[in-house]
Amino acid sequence: MAVSLNVLENLKAAPDAERALANYRELASDYDASCSRIEALRLLAVRALRLQPGETVFDIACGTGPLLPLLARTVGSNGRVVGVEHSPEMATLARRRVERLRLGNHVSILQCPVEQLDSDLQADALLFCYAHDVLQSPAAIDRLIQRSRPGARIAMVGMKTLPWLWGWPVNCFNMYRARQYLTTYAGLDRPWRLLERRSAQLCEIDTALWGSAYLTVGRLAGTTTAYTQPEKETV
Ligand SMILES: C[S@@+](CC[C@H](N)C(=O)[O-])C[C@H]1O[C@@H](n2cnc3c(N)ncnc32)[C@H](O)[C@@H]1O
Question: How many A from CA of 162 to the centre of ligand 1?
């Protein structure tokens, strides 16, 4: 019953924060074990951000924080890593990871909806790993634009749909499989559309899982420097 409800509810056009919180209350304890097949893609996204020592990066919807150690090492102790996560259960696991691995004071977890992100820091770079609900929330995107430097770099990975004419079996399989990890199927054909509507320059540079996962990079509006696409890399 819970399964079919998730599929039907996900047909709504907007993310549902309450349902997401309820889903991740159940998913949190086994979350890391369930994500092995997306690890390589996540690493590609971090590399594509081309972080420099001393920079500030926001890991949007950081979940249990699997990328925090790599982000912390890359920006170094003079940089800042901010994980933003609204699920208390996921944020607790992220904080435990920070403590267990002694990542340092330059790594922090803000437990709040991205829509209410309040930080004195401004992001040089934004990372979205399987953060579909956030990407479909206009309020979240507007908040992130306010909290980032003009022209901040962006890298995102996640699930997307193939053209329905021939890709429908893969789409149906993936959408069913992902039913608890997101709360809206809206925007799956081009998950970064809301950012583009706000003049972000974005380019899909790689796909995986037969085209049903994407790596898209670029930058927010607000700089006159042209964006140079990174070389395609493999992990
Ligand atoms: C599929 S998980 C991805 C977690 C992590 N980025 C990763 O790569 O494993 C999606 C995460 O988004 C979080 N989330 C969803 N909507 C959110 C929002 N509006 N604000 C903050 N976190 C949100 C969920 O709680 C969940 O932890």
Answer: 23
Helix (H, G, I), strand (E, B) or coil at 83: strand
Cα–Cα distance measured from residue 211 to residue 204, given in angstroms and rounded to the nearest whole number: 11
Q: Ligand 1: which of 6, 19, 21, 24 to mutate, judged by most atoms within 8 Å of the beta carbon?
A: 24
Ligand 1 first shell, C-beta below 6 A:
17, 20, 24, 35, 42, 61-63, 66, 84-87, 90, 113-115, 129-131, 133-134, 137, 140, 181
Q: Would you say residue 142 has pLDDT above 60?
A: yes
For the chain, which domains are there?
7-219 (3.40.50.150)
pTM of the complete model: 0.94
Contact 156, 129 (CB under 8 A): yes
Kind and range of the H or E element at 175? helix 164-177
What's the pLDDT tens digit per position in 164-218? 999 999 999 999 999 999 999 999 999 999 999 999 999 999 998 889 999 999 9
- How far apart (Å, rounded) are the C-alpha atoms in residues 66 and 98? 10
Strands 201-208 and 213-219: antiparallel
Query: Are residues 113 and 142 in contact, defined by beta-carbon separation less than 8 angstroms?
Result: no
